[in-house]
Amino acid sequence: MIKTSFVTRNFNGWGCLSVLPEEVKRLKANNALIITDPFLAQNGLAAQLAKMLEEVGIKTIINSDVVPEPPLAVGEQLVSFSRQQAVDLVIGLGGGSAIDLAKLVAALATQEGEVKDYLNLTGTRALEKASLPKIMIPTTSGTGSEVTNISVLSLENSKDVVVHDNLLAEVVIVDPELTVSVPPRVTAATGIDALTHAIESYVSVNATPISEALSLQSIRLIARSIVTAVEDGQNKQARTDMSYGSYLAGLAFFNAGCAAVHALAYPLGGQFHIAHGESNAVLLPYVMGYIRSSCEKKLKDIYEAMGYSASQLSQEEASVECIKALQRLVKQVGIPATLQNFDIPETALGDLTRAAMLQTRLLQRSPMKLNEVDVGKIYEACYHGKTFC
User: Fold this and answer.
1) pLDDT at position 69
2) CA–CA gap between residue 213 and residue 203 (Å, rounded)
3) What angle do CA 68, 380, 151 make, to 5 degrees?
4) Element (H, E) at 171
5) Which of 137, 176, 189, 214 has a CA positioned 20 to 30 A from the CA of residue 182?
6) Which domains does the chain possess?
7) Dist. CA 285–CA 88, nearest whole Å
8) CA–CA distance from 321 to each of 36, 45, 86, 252, 379 (Å)?
9) By C-alpha distance, which of 84, 95, 90, 83 is closest to 38?
10) Rounded CA gap, 265 and 302, in Å?
11) In sequence order, which residues have a C-beta less than 8 Å from that of residue 296 and are 6 or more positions away?
12) For residue 217, which phi and psi values (nearest 5 degrees)?
């Protein structure tokens, strides 16, 4: 039996933000909390949403305390804030950090205790009460967080998560028009993040025919549009394709899971505050190159989905070419190719390795079982820029 989970109501397409007031009214909300970041508060988008809701009689509060790679303390602060307000709906507006925090706030506003009590690795409490209703509106094409049941928080040396179906949104609105103003470097990082979701979910030991279909279509859309989206952010077709690709990748990894790339990326964000998308991007070719022998057939599929012909290649040959293509793509969109380029000292590799090994939830999905020696070799290769192909 295959179990596949999806958010209840999804709206996709250019201009679909217009459905927001109707959806808020359908949820019978009167007081909405919009959780966003300072940029979207300053550029007027958050205020635009508030105005749309106020015009139909719904009060709104805007909280723009979101920060990139949000630490546990920010999660605690926002949950505490939500409990002090008489809100009956939470709207997440922004990139992955805003979406993750909005889901967290909606789910924990009704619970007892602190956020740390519900962390996956160390928490001791379970979510028992129903969540506040929530609407997620991503403004980047990357994390896919809007369709998942997980919220990621940075700790001192790595990251941890709160994961529960109470974090699933009641409504998702994915409007590519909102991504037009995203700068090139963020477009690149979030886009490779989405591509990583699609690739890791495709090779995951938990992949199913359903998740595989989502993964491959996501790879087709992202690999063939990301360069244009980075170079010409006003390109409507490229932005639309990236938006759909990110959304499909989110559905794919929600059902099949991510694996070693994410496990190794979490400590980079936790210890060195590297953006999650860039952490995934720098690691992607090295991790996939190391585990290549365990998923050659699927890497050939990925290579073809990226737009290359592999009809004359063996599975092994195509898998090698796939890793090279991923390296080229990461370079083409301007993301640094090694850990050295992020000013990470070689002396940190041991701590990174030990922190990554704690991410058992992620590592167990890898098609190749990885031990501490394996993880250390991958970090070492990523530091020196030496691939396994």
Assistant:
1) 87
2) 12
3) 25
4) strand 171-174
5) 214
6) 9-179 (3.40.50.1970), 184-384 (1.20.1090.10)
7) 44
8) 40, 42, 56, 24, 21
9) 95
10) 21
11) 315, 316, 318, 319
12) -65, -35
d(CA 44, CA 118): 34
Spatial separation of the C-alpha atoms in residues 110 and 82, rounded to whole Å: 9
User: What DSSP designation does 310 have?
Assistant: -
d(CA 264, CA 272): 13
Instruction: Give the C-alpha separation, 90 to 282, whole Å.
Output: 34
| CA atoms of 254 and 270, how far apart (whole Å) | 22
Whole-number pLDDT of residue 6:
78
Question: How do strand 159-163 and strand 150-154 relate by DSSP bridges?
Answer: antiparallel
Q: In this predicted structure, what is the pLDDT of residue 7?
A: 80
Report the relative pairing of strands 89-94 and 59-63 from DSSP bridges.
Answer: unpaired
Gap between the Cα atoms of 222 and 242, Å rounded: 5
According to the model, what pLDDT value does residue 8 have?
80
Q: What is the mean pLDDT of each run of 10 residues along the chain (389 residues)?
A: 79 97 96 96 96 96 94 96 93 96 97 95 92 97 93 87 95 97 95 97 97 98 98 98 97 95 94 92 97 98 97 97 97 96 96 95 97 98 90
By CB atoms closer than 10 A (0-12, 13-18, 19+), residue 338 is middle
CA 226 to chain centre: 16
CB 355 within 8 A of CB 270: yes
